[in-house]
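Annotators were shown the component list below and the corresponding predicted structure, then asked to write short factual statements about the assembly.
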Amino acid sequence: MITIMKKEFARFFGDKRMVFSTVLLPGLMIYVLYSFMGSAIADQFMTAADHVYEIHTVNLPDSLASLKSQQDLEVIEADLADVEPLKSQIEAQETELLVVFPEGFDEKVAAYDSLTSQETAPLVEIYYNSVFTESGTAYDTVCGILEQYETSMANKFDVNADAAKRYDMATEREMTGQFFSMLLPMLLMSFLFSACLSIAPESIAGEKERGTIATLLVTPVKRSELATGKILSLSVIGLLGGVSSFIGTMLAIPKMLGGAAGGSMDAGVYGGMDYVMTLLVILSTVLVIIGVISILSGFAKSVKEAGALATPLMIIVMVVGVMSMFGDGAPSATYLYLIPFYNSVQCLNGIFSFSALPVNLAVTIGCNIAYTMIMAALLAKIFDSEKIMYI
Amino acid sequence: MEEMLKAQELSKTFKLSKKQQKLEKTTTKTKTAVDRLSFSAYRGEVFGLLGPNGAGKTTTLRMLATLIRPDTGDAVIEGSSIITDPNGVRSKIAFLTSELKLEEFFTPDYLFDFFSELHGVAPAERDERKRRLFGRFGISDFAGVKVANLSTGMKQKVSLVISMVHDPQTIIFDEPTNGLDVITARVVTDFLQELKAEGRTIIVSTHIFSLIEKICDRVGIIVSGKMAVCDTLENLTAEKSLEDKFFDIYAEMEGKVL
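Structure shown to annotators:
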């Protein structure tokens, strides 16, 4: 068995291109891709920090003259007659914002009483273009200022006004946990699956296709040892690919989120114990994935067919992974952890949200190993079956 | 004479798919590839299975090599039954066919060590044998070259050498010279004669009369899965050439004259 494993490793690690494309490339790709996505998203929704917004106002009231002193706003006063041309300019993304105050805004506001008035409140109209990022941001800024002004006029009470205080009692750790536990199980499962899919069919269906496995089968090596050796060595390689993708993801997620989430997401909230648990769960998961793909590859006549057979399985795994994005975190009922793939996803979900139950982890790892042993026995049977191997 | 291999009443039936039934112009769902075949091979002789394509030669050899199981019958090779002790058989024989390939990624040197390890050959013994066999076939210079980059002839030589890692006494060889150029074919037949001289037992299958005439001591002629004749080459070729003899038997068995 050791000999078989050594050969598989020699085959894999001796081929630099294969090592690069299965182990290094996925992690690197994910890191680069996600980081790029992060900065692209940031570019899309954020404007340069020193951008000065061009704002046209009609009938700008004295009470809001403070707009002019805002550093990032350049206020240009205009007449009613300019409204239409300015609107088309905004449509053409040539200028950013047009704010039209009713005439005598200050007096009207002073006279207006929301409780007794029969008329509608004075109306400020702001024309903007939401597709034009700068225009959208300027709109948000001006709205903010106006709302603040409105609040300051009739301030009876404030909510959460003390900027120095923390009102959201969720800790950064919990928020990070919630976010990661939503995203990571699904990503991890698909990384692991694709890593395994890139090696297992090649090693089993490929050897069958090329006629090299028959050479092994005429030696006195036990079928069970051949099957176990293959599954174990392929799992190690699959795990390397999966871990590389995982590292890429962990490094890239903070970058991807960038400033959008307040920049507070950090993989540092997880301790060594969490990583050890994650590693154990993904190791047992890789065993199951390799086992299933190996059996499918054993039945397949070619690498191509093995890939085709494994595709529906991949979809199932993805669906199970997506399930963890919804629902209320990992369920605690232990019997659910007997279901392969589902158990792994929910365990990962539990680990990343700091709510994993040791008994469920143990059940998951234990039954994944048991499933793998059953599948190894089945693969040995396949190797022994002349109908499957030589026709 | 020591009996090294004894095949008794070996039979193998394959299921035919609808497509195959059409091709064979038959409505029976099964095809008997090998029909109660019995023969023996003795130490130090070359036994040849002669027959046309589809006669059941390869199926017979695959059964002997434990790659497929016979439906009925058994064969005992050096005391191990292919039914009850297939692993014992595998450790005693060398099985060579063009269908068994070597992984192209590895070098002859690595593959020799790998298969030695699978056969449980001690390292000292392995190194000595490797030196001798690589030298004998001129592989030494190519020992570090990936199989993928070797010529067809060299690949065939490497396959031969690899099959001998455990110094087997019984060698089963399906179509030994098929697809080989004259030079490599000569290397193979010379080697088979050498093995015979060393007292090993060799079973070959072929449809090439000249090969049988050149290397075989005894011949079994198979037609449609049945053993038509099994005798020494001398007896078979006493009156006429092997080729003529074969067609007489073939016509008799199939009930038609070619």
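Statements collected:
1. The two ends of chain A are 26 Å apart (CA to CA).
2. The longest helix of chain A spans residues 223-257.
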